[in-house]
Prior knowledge:
By secondary structure, this protein is an alpha/beta fold. About 45% of the residues lie in helices and about 20% in strands. Strand 4 (about 85-90), helix 4 and strand 5 (about 115) form a beta-alpha-beta unit. The termini are far apart.
Amino acid sequence: MKIAIYPGSFDPITYGHLDILKNAAGIFDKVIIAVAHNGAKNGFLNVEERVRLIRESIDDIPNVEADSFEGLTIEYAKKMGATVLIRGLRAVSDFEFEMQLSQTNSALCDEIKTVFLTTKPEYNFISSSTIKEILANGGDISKFVPEPVYNYLTSRK
Length: 157
Ligand code: ADP
């Protein structure tokens, strides 16, 4: 059984993340989308809110689970029996950081490989930070985030 971890901030999950996740779910037996706790940053939503919104957004994908973790991604991957990390690439600007991250993870644990996926063009430009900015300025985010995220964010304002 090939298990992959899709780690990230997901603050909040977007249609871009969801598209990457669906693509990964078609390739691997099980995909765990995992919110990384970042001790230094509090974030927009707390980790529990992010995981809950992910769960509500993925209930139609049978081989995907949502979770959160603290510490190194590779240690979490080992604990979950995963051998693959999924990351998304939007543009050349993502490449340098993602390359460095994947090579660092390989140097720490060579058995765990990073697989990069891309989205459909219509989801490629979406980022969590842009969504927060649109929301803060009263814009419509319904085209960019799954319905549970839209409902939660627009009702908590
Ligand atoms: P992080 O803070 O770890 O970058 P994010 O939640 O911003 O976490 O993103 C998690 C992963 O999803 C990253 O690999 C990021 O490049 C990718 N990603 C985010 N949005 C998109 C998108 N619209 N298209 C493709 N990949 C994306």
